[in-house]
């Protein structure tokens, strides 16, 4: 009984001592105002209890130091059992159901967590007596009652779970234990990079000579390290230029892995042909790349031929035909053929869709394939004689204009009309009558060398003739007319006297260059 009281007293005394040590600074601060201010200042600036701040104010007084209370001895470590998780490099714990039924499978689970990098992690387990091994996930290496799992390497914080199914074969307690072994693992790494550069060049495979050639250069960092001072150069082949230059250079700067840059420009071809264009990419890392493209430059080339009749009569229609040929190696797009209509000719119709437009005939032929012909014709008529020239011009996109000329001589037809009359009729003997003769060119062409000869009937005698007509007996001959234009006429008069009773028949004979044979006509006059 006495021993118990002494013990209680000792415990109480110790508690009071601790309480006084904790309260001493606060009591002292209340007794001395200066120290109270110091206590507040200490609290504001986190000065530990029992210390006095001496570096901020000249009004602060030093106080006797207080010896801190001794630290309590650490509590003894709790005892561990085989049911607790393992500690160290691999922490492993094992769980089993608290109770199972005889003959029924149950699952035991192992959970591993690496506390640091570990190598060659191996887990061993033993099938306890009174139970049999059924299966496990992952599958274990089974050697009798010993089960082994080769886990391999684990990163710090990495976990694995192993599930084990057992079957109890008798009543009682089953104790299933597992162990784990591992080796500490430390690693170092270095990054191995491979600088590489890629260049692609794209351009159209076929263009016309008058079109710009769009070209694209794309440089790409297809390696694993950054590329610096990346440059792309392009030497254009002979016949190609870009803004008057044949040598081009582009600065791509720096390229991160996977990054790419494009450069676009237009080239111009001075001629047709096939052009192979090569470009090169380089960088400060020393790697290079090449790329090329091939472009064929084409051009349509037009030629025109003309065909027209050499001669036609006025008023008669005639055809003027053209053949347009594309002798180039590209289609002639937007092909047209224009034919001015010459003065004096009249357009009647056209083939291939030709239409009259102002004083021209125009064919819109759309596109003409390479090495292909196109035939067209236009029909004309000319009311007047003359030589008519037809000059047509073909045009197409990217092709030089081509022309052709042909001509037709249009001639007229002379048509001679002979008219004659006597006045008066009848006449008595000794009386006179006048014969009037008129020669008219009714055609649309000149006639030449018109001659007129009149034979007076025996019942009459010629007295006089106009137009320098010459009388020889009964025959009156008029001078030859060198030219009688279309629609012109020439007239003659002859005065004759009745000399014998009867019906007289005077004959008029007309000849000219146009007439194939002379024209003869009679005029009857009765004499009484």
Number of helices: 2
**Mean pLDDT, as a whole number?**
87
Major beta sheet, strand line-up: 19-27-26-21-24-23
Total number of distinct structural domains: 5
Main sheet attributes: strand count, strand direction, barrel closure? 6 strands, mixed
Query: What is the name of the CATH superfamily of the largest domain?
Result: Immunoglobulins
| Uncertain regions spanning at least 5 consecutive residues | 1-63
CATH architecture of the largest domain: Sandwich
The fraction of residues assigned to DSSP E strands is over 45%
Shape: rod-shaped
- Specify the helix fraction band: under 10%
What would you say this structure looks like, in words?
With 528 residues, this protein is mainly beta. Helix content is 8%, strand content 54%. The chain has helices at residues 2-31, 33-44; strands at residues 90-95, 106-114, 118-126, 131-137, 141-143, 146-154, 159-168, 178-184, 197-202, 206-208, 213-221, 227-235, 240-241, 247-255, 260-269, 273-282, 288-298, 302-307, 311-313, 317-326, 332-340, 345-350, 355-357, 360-368, 372-382, 386-396, 399-411, 416-423, 432-441, 447-455, 460-465, 470-472, 475-484, 489-498, 502-511, 519-527. The strands form 8 sheets. It has a 6-stranded mixed β-sheet, with no helix packed on it. The chain has a 5-stranded mixed β-sheet with strand order 10-17-16-12-14, with no helix packed on it. The model is unreliable at 1-63 (pLDDT under 50).
């Amino acid at each position: 009984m006495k021993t118990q009281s002494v013990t209680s007293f000792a415990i109480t005394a110790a508690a009071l001592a601790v309480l006084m040590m904790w309260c001493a600074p606060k009591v002292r601060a209340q007794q001395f105002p200066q120290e109270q201010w110091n206590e507040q200042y200490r609290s504001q600036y986190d000065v530990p209890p029992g210390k006095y701040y001496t570096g901020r104010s000249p009004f602060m007084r030093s106080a006797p130091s207080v010896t801190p209370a001794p630290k309590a001895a650490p509590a003894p470590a709790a005892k561990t059992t085989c049911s607790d998780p393992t500690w160290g490099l691999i922490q492993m714990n094992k769980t089993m159901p608290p109770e199972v039924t005889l003959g029924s499978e149950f699952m035991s689970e192992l959970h591993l967590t690496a506390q640091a990098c570990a190598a060659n992690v191996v887990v061993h387990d033993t099938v306890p007596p009174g139970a049999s091994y059924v299966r496990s996930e992952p599958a274990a290496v089974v050697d009798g009652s010993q089960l082994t799992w080769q886990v391999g390497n684990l990163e710090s914080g990495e976990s694995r779970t192993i599930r084990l199914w057992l079957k109890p074969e008798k009543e009682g307690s089953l104790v299933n234990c597992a162990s784990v072994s591992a080796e500490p693992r430390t690693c170092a790494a270095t990054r191995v990079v491979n600088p590489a550069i890629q260049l692609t060049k794209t351009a159209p495979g076929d263009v016309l000579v008058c079109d710009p050639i769009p070209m694209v250069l794309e440089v790409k960092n297809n390696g694993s390290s950054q590329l610096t001072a990346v440059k792309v150069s392009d030497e254009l082949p002979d016949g190609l230029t870009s803004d008057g230059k044949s040598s081009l250079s582009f600065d791509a700067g720096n390229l991160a892995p996977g990054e790419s840059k494009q450069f676009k420009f237009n080239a111009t071809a001075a001629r047709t042909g096939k052009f192979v264009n090569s470009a090169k990419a380089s960088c400060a890392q020393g790697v290079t790349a090449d790329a090329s493209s091939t472009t064929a430059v084409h051009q349509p080339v037009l030629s025109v031929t003309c065909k027209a009749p050499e001669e036609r009569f006025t008023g008669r229609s005639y055809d003027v035909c053209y053949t347009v040929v594309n002798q180039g190696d590209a289609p002639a797009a937007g092909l047209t053929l224009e034919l001015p209509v010459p003065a004096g000719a009249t357009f009647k119709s056209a083939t291939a869709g030709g239409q009259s437009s102002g004083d021209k005939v125009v064919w819109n032929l759309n596109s003409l394939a390479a090495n292909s012909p196109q035939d067209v014709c236009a029909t004309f008529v000319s009311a007047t004689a003359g030589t008519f020239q037809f000059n047509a011009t073909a045009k197409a996109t990217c092709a030089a204009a081509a022309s052709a000329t042909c001509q037709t001589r249009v001639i007229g037809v002379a048509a001679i009309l002979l008219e004659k009359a006597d006045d008066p009729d009848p006449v008595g003997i000794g009386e006179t009558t006048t014969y009037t003769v008129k020669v008219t060119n009714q055609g649309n062409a000149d006639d030449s060398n018109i001659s007129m000869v009149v034979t007076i009937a025996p019942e009459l005698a010629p007295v006089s003739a106009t137009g320098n007509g010459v009388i020889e007996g009964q025959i009156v001959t008029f001078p030859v007319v060198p030219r009688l234009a279309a629609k012109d006429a020439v007239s003659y008069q002859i005065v004759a006297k009745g000399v014998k009773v009867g019906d007289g028949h005077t004959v008029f004979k007309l000849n000219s260059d146009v007439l194939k044979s002379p024209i003869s006509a009679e005029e009857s006059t009765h004499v009484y």
